[in-house]
Amino acid sequence: MTTYKNERNRQFPTKISTTSFVKLYILHLLKEKSYYGNEIIEEIRSRLHNKWEPSPGMIYPLLRELEENNYISGWWQEPDKRSIRHYRLTDTGYEHYQRIKLMYKSNFEDSMTIIKNTLSDIYNI
């Protein structure tokens, strides 16, 4: 996320956009193994303990964008049917993943501090 001088951060408490978060998560998952779109949605939902999941309308355009940028590569499970497209991380994608992972870390830490302090202050949790 880019913050300009004298500009307030109006994304409360999250300091990272949903799109940026999902792109990071897609690259993170594809670092581990290949997935297809619905598997990515299910895996994110599972890892977030069913509290949130990206929609197919978000995942598939992001997969196309990441593939166009050569961050991931895709192939059809059955090329004749073109029904399931698997993806894996490219070397360029891994380098990009490492960069944005580092770039977003402080944003996640700031968000966690805001949430923890809010829970403690208001709910005594």
Automatic annotation (TrEMBL):
Under Pfam families, the record lists: PadR
Q: Indicate the segments forming the Transcription regulator PadR N-terminal domain, all copies.
A: 26-98
InterPro entries noted in UniProt: Tscrpt_reg_PadR_N, WH-like_DNA-bd_sf, WH_DNA-bd_sf
User: What protein name is recorded for this chain?
Assistant: Transcriptional regulator, PadR-like family
The top of its lineage is:
Bacteria, Bacillati, Bacillota, Tissierellia, Tissierellales
